[in-house]
Amino acid sequence: MKLNNKKSSNWCKIPFILLLQLTLSTCSLVYKNTGDVLIGFAKDETVPYVLASDDLDLGCSMSKAFTPFILSFSRVTAQPNELAIMLYLLAGSCSEVKAWEEELRYLRAVYSKNVLEAQDARIAQKRFLNQAARRQLAGYNSLVLAIAEPGGECPVFNSDNAELYWLIGLLDGLQAMLNDITTESSANVPLDIASKVGRGASCLDNEKWWGLPKAIQAAIWVTIPSNKPAGVDPLKVLDQSMQIGLQQGVPITQVLAAQIQMGLGHTEQVKAIIRRHQEVKTQNHTVPAFRLLNEFTTLQLQAISDRLWTEATGKRTPISGLGTFWDDPKKPVNTINIDDMLQ
Known about the structure:
Blueprint: H1 2-52, H2 56-71, H3 81-111, H4 115-146, H5 160-182, H6 193-201, H7 212-223, H8 234-248, H9 253-263, H10 267-282, H11 291-313, H12 338-342
Helix pairs in contact: 2-3, 3-4, 3-5, 3-11, 4-5, 5-6, 5-7, 6-7, 7-8, 7-9, 8-9, 9-10, 9-11, 10-11
């Protein structure tokens, strides 16, 4: 009798197990469909919307909040690697902004001869740059998964969007490498990424993409001279690419040009780049679909300007002062002679 009860109990469990399996399968299907819809919406609508935005801080906040959520759907559907390329670049920029503030704190401490404050600020700066490098490396690795690993045979791009993701992924790799160098290789970014990114940039039309592919190559040639082709002047290539970007209304190449010139100690050339950026910006010659890239350029150049100002004066660029410098010739001020007015 006891044996029969046990068999009866086991039979009663079967419908429950089947119901549980059905419920879990249904949930998985719902999650997958939800993930597919959200990922599709993000690629078709969110990315273009963010790129056309002129509020970089909101884009930064969106990437930090949205990245874990959207990438979590890789557990139930195909990995959204193309989105990850963009999201990690923006998230890395968030960390870079924090690193810039710590660098300014360091420079102010040096200016006021506060050794302990300077040491602490430098440590904090490197921590944030380490975080930026790791995020950007994740973006580069997402490029490898989404399209192909740069450095080999050029992939066949089926759309302009695919080319754009390729370009952004190359920027991920380049910025990861540069930030890792600053942090004494604490993020363990593979050094061979530089040569791979350089060869990958040759897969894109330089004129079509604002001169950025050649600018990326030139930046690598300056940073790692052993990669430079014989008879090529990287700074000349960089300048030519910068002019293309300015003419087309997407001057992001100015960022690489300013970073490289700054690293070489060419302060006057850096000042000229920043002045030129402000001149073009006041003319409002921008491409609406890529406003965010222009704001990114302004923010990066603002950071470089702040660094120059703080080194020289102990404080950052004045309000509405981007494109001006502490040692500029003073403009004559028109004064009114009170005596003449009283006659």
